[in-house]
Amino acid sequence: MLVRRASKMMDARVLIIEDEDAIADFLVRGLREEGFQVTRAADGDVGWRLLHNEAWDLVLLDWWLPHTEGITLLRRFRSENEQTPVIFLTARDAVSDRVHGLDRGADDYLCKPFAFEELLARMNVHLRRAERTPPTELKFADVHLDLLTQRVTRAGQPLVLTSREHALLVLLLRHPDEVLAKSRIYEQVWDDSYDGFSNTLEVHVMELRKKLEAFGPRLIHTIRNRGYRLGQPIG
Hints:
four-stranded antiparallel beta sheet; alpha/beta; Arc Repressor Mutant, subunit A; Rossmann fold; five-stranded parallel beta sheet; single chain; 39% helix; 8 helices
């Protein structure tokens, strides 16, 4: 019987980059039943776009992939100073392969075929470690925010934000692709309840958009009657 994860890890975002449909389907179903938010990429090029443009709590990576091999994806990923845990899932079981994968930045290495219970246990270990060492940088697409220095850039260009705009961006970056209700944003950024009449939030969103869109397409989208979402350009 599998032990359920601690509540803080119940909504962890996991990216699976695996070209074998049977293995990917097995992993997606099993991990979703365990409470993970799971996305699957079937080749290296799609995998890289997802790795590069979105934030993940953990990545499950195959070595042999169409278009771009897993070891190449890992090298690129680590070159961006990403600390997200990566577990290799591969049929390459030679000691030299395991050493090579770990040397290139993998946090763990599991040979196929493997037991789902073992994979789940290893994932939980790495997620707990990540919880104890929170990231110092938030990123989505080409937007980077350093939590230590407060420096914000888009496409490498520095942005000058007010304290409220900065807090608003931090909240959005911590919840990519999630629709955040206006009341939730107001409570977390202004530490106050939202009365439904003030336009303070709308004004700050507008100003933050202007600064971000000076160097790229729109990332903060208005979801009618619901709130705001940080995501890739629509359409």
